[in-house]
Amino acid sequence: MANVAVYNIEGKQVDTIELNDAVFGVEINEHLVHMAVVSQLANKRQGTQSAKTRAEVSGGGKKPWRQKGTGHARQGSIRAPQWKGGGVVFAPKPRDYSFKMNKKEKALAIKSALTSRVQADKFVVIDKFGFTEIKTKKMKEVLDNLKVKKALIVLDKKDENVTLSARNLPNVRTILSNSINVYDILKYDTLVITKDAVAQIEEVYA
């Protein structure tokens, strides 16, 4: 089992914590990680894009000119795709882009993403934030103390002082431990996680 340092908000080491290899030390499955990211992005798509085919645009019922003898190329309708105002070839239609992964695949993808952060030394455990007020400047100071710029902050419980303090920082996102996902773990350079959140994640995925 890997041992990682536990820091306080001043950036000083106050403890160490032993990570469960069943969650933070698995063999990384890149295929499932990729699948999880694609699934999450696909599930976000509205799928409402729509355009009309030549069968759906109005007009064009009459042949524009006779078949032969005009010197023009033959035409059957002014709503064919080559005409201005004509229909679209293979027009996009509303569709559902989402697809499902089973629970074991999702769990292994998350464990792989967490393991990759531990192996890359981008996994920072903090004992607690303990903010008494909403202060963006304070959050910036904490991240500077931890030498972190682009961070996903994982909390063990809802804390508005922390969430709202981080909201205006462009490269920071806060999330609860029960909402972690592969996309966010990989999108943000460093995972800043509370000690209690580590225990919660191990309880769910171990």
TrEMBL record:
This is Large ribosomal subunit protein uL4. One of the primary rRNA binding proteins, this protein initially binds near the 5'-end of the 23S rRNA. It is important during the early stages of 50S assembly. It makes multiple contacts with different domains of the 23S rRNA in the assembled 50S subunit and ribosome. Forms part of the polypeptide exit tunnel. It comes from Herbinix hemicellulosilytica. It comes from the Bacteria. GO terms for molecular function: rRNA binding; structural constituent of ribosome. Part of the 50S ribosomal subunit. GO terms for cellular component: ribonucleoprotein complex; ribosome. InterPro entries: Ribosomal_uL4, Ribosomal_uL4-like, Ribosomal_uL4_dom_sf. PANTHER family: 50S RIBOSOMAL PROTEIN L4, LARGE RIBOSOMAL SUBUNIT PROTEIN UL4M. Belongs to the universal ribosomal protein uL4 family. The gene is rplD. Residues 44-79 are annotated as: Disordered. The keyword Ribosomal protein applies. Keywords: Ribonucleoprotein, Ribosomal protein, RNA-binding, rRNA-binding. Pfam families: Ribosomal_L4 (PF00573). GO terms for biological process: translation.
